[in-house]
Automatic annotation (TrEMBL):
MF term (GO), any: DNA binding
Descriptive protein name: Transposase
NCBIfam families for this protein: transpos_IS110
GO BP, sorted A to Z: DNA transposition
PANTHER family referenced in this protein's UniProt entry, alphabetically: PUTATIVE TRANSPOSASE FOR IS117-RELATED, TRANSPOSASE FOR INSERTION SEQUENCE ELEMENT IS1111A
Domain Transposase IS110-like N-terminal: 6-145
Annotated ranges, domain Transposase IS116/IS110/IS902 C-terminal: 212-292
Length: 342
């Protein structure tokens, strides 16, 4: 009987495969090793293949799409309810096969190689930024143990600590001075790594027309623009801008029942990195708007009514919807744009 739908439980070496026919009858339960995957699916008629969006999922999706199959990725939390009993590889593959055939299932767009490459730069840069912050905090903490307090802000570390180390009046041991010098060298290395990766990202940004259009939106710079373009891919995967904002977790959580609407804080679903960058960009726009104090400015009016944190999330939501419109309609940003009446 011809297989129409397959669920694959991905792993490093051993993959579990579960297949059904058009009547939903199980016709395939099989374990495959990594090197057997391409050969096995090359000999199958094109079918629908479901996988969880996890490590290497986008690679295998592209690989199987090249063989003529239709591949759909799903968030693991949407697959979990279909696991019938105890968790094991066979049960997971069966649940994936069941979930991918549901008409109401939400799917993750498959990323191409260029998207993954740019996002890798962002992830590595983010790791270096975290390591740089941790290193600066360690230097500040060690100096604090000797009664030397450095003001907050990473810039003060590089400005003031070398002078403190050279100051003979603070009675610091020689071995400790050498240790702080070594940590300062490591901090400077992390600075260079961040700057070099940012330069590569900005080079890609200058060569990408969509990223340059997004940069015109207030609160979005080259880093946020490149991350948005690489993560979203084809914005037509979303029906409207509200779906994109919800996908980024910039909408309220709900706990509603009996017709009574109860809205909570941010859902925080989706990509935390993108959401953070959009909110930080919104904070910068709010800061400028409060300085100008224009009573006709939408941002200034919402900050007058709401807490600044709430206003920042609201503005980030609006920015996400603007991004969707620019990408889908292939437009450039126009301040004060008003949609044409129907």
């Amino acid at each position: 009987m011809e297989i129409t739908t397959i669920g694959i439980d991905l792993a490093k070496n051993v993959f579990q495969v579960h297949g059904v026919n058009k009547h939903g009858k199980v016709v395939l339960r099989k374990q495959l090793r990594r090197e057997q995957i391409a050969t096995f699916f090359a000999n199958l008629h094109p079918c629908l293949i479901g996988m969880e969006a996890c490590g290497s999922a986008h690679y295998w999706a592209r690989k199987l799409q090249a063989l003529g199959h239709t591949v759909k990725l799903m968030a693991p939390q949407f697959v979990k309810p279909y696991v019938k009993s105890n968790k094991n590889d066979a049960a997971d593959a069966e649940a994936i096969c069941e979930a991918v055939s549901r008409p109401s299932m939400r799917f993750v767009p498959v990323k191409n190689i260029e998207q993954q490459s740019v996002l890798s730069l962002h992830r590595v840069r983010q790791g270096f930024v975290k390591a740089r912050t941790a290193q600066a905090n360690q230097i500040r903490g060690l100096l604090g143990e000797f009664g030397i307090v450095v003001p907050q802000g990473i810039a003060y570390i590089t400005q003031r600590v070398p002078e403190l180390i050279e100051d003979a009046s603070n009675a610091l041991p020689g071995s400790f001075r050498l240790l702080i010098n070594r940590l300062l060298e490591h901090l400077e290395l992390l600075h260079r790594q961040v700057d070099e990766i940012e330069a590569v990202i900005k080079t890609w940004h200058r060569d990408n027309e969509a990223s340059q259009r997004l940069e015109k939106v207030p609160g979005i710079g080259p880093l946020t623009a490149t991350a948005l373009v690489a993560t979203i891919g084809d914005a037509r995967n979303f029906d409207n801008g509200r779906q994109l904002a919800a996908w980024l977790g910039l909408v309220p959580r709900q706990h509603s029942s009996g017709g009574k609407q109860n809205l909570l804080g941010m859902s925080k679903r989706g990509d935390a990195y993108l959401r953070t960058m959009l909110i930080h960009g919104a904070r910068s726009v709010i800061y400028r708007a409060t300085q100008k104090a224009d009573p006709n400015n939408w941002v200034f009016k919402i900050t007058a009514r709401r807490n600044k944190n709430v206003a920042a999330v609201a503005l980030a939501n609006k920015m996400a919807r603007t991004v969707w419109a620019l990408l889908v309609h292939d437009r450039s940003f126009q301040p004060g744009y008003a949609p044409r009446a129907a």
